[in-house]
């Protein structure tokens, strides 16, 4: 069996190839990056290495957003460190190796745990612990992830 037919080995090889020349992107406040995602409050954004942020994401980092190493964020995700609807604000932390599914919404003050996965179209209002799968509206932990 070749490494690309073996999902864990194949994923590792593809990641090594994909991020071999990774560079921190040029981010200007309120302007789309070359990958078509946008940040407000860029001075309060901490971006780790080997991150993958999908097109059409919006990050409001005014109250602080930390995206640690190896985080994947699907297209269309919205991350709000400030909510003008309910006047909440708080730092958001996406811990290393977590994955956020497409079109999900992360609300102020939330931490997504290391290696955790948030399913697509989820609305995250509370912290998600390490090594779990969570999804839904509102997002809830569905199961623990083993072999991480």
Description:
With 148 residues, the protein is mainly beta. The protein has a single domain, classed as Hexapeptide repeat proteins (UDP N-Acetylglucosamine Acyltransferase, domain 1), CATH 2.160.10.10. It has one helix at 7-18; strands at 38-40, 45-47, 52-53, 58-60, 65-67, 72-73, 78-80, 82-83, 88-89, 92-94, 99-100, 105-106, 111-112, 117-118, 123-124, 132-135, 140-144. Strands 3-6-11-14-16-17 form a six-stranded mixed sheet, with no helix packed on it. Strand 8 and strand 9 form a beta hairpin. The longest helix has 12 residues, at 7-18. Mean pLDDT is 90; it is low at 1-5.
Search tags:
1 helix, single chain, UDP N-Acetylglucosamine Acyltransferase, domain 1, 148 residues, 6-stranded mixed β-sheet
């Amino acid at each position: 069996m070749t490494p690309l037919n073996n999902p864990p080995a194949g994923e590792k090889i593809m990641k090594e190839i994909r991020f071999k020349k990774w560079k921190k992107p040029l981010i200007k406040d309120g302007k789309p990056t070359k990958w078509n995602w946008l940040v407000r409050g860029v001075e309060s954004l901490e971006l780790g290495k080997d991150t993958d942020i999908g097109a059409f994401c919006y990050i409001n980092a005014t109250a602080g957003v930390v995206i640690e190493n190896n985080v994947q964020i699907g297209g269309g995700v919205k991350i709000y460190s400030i909510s003008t609807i309910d006047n909440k604000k708080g730092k958001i932390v996406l811990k290393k190796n977590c994955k956020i599914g497409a079109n999900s919404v992360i609300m102020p003050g939330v931490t997504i745990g290391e290696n955790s996965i948030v399913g697509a179209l989820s609305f995250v209002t509370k912290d998600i612990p390490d090594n779990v799968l969570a999804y839904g509206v509102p997002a809830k932990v569905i199961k623990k992830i083993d072999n991480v």
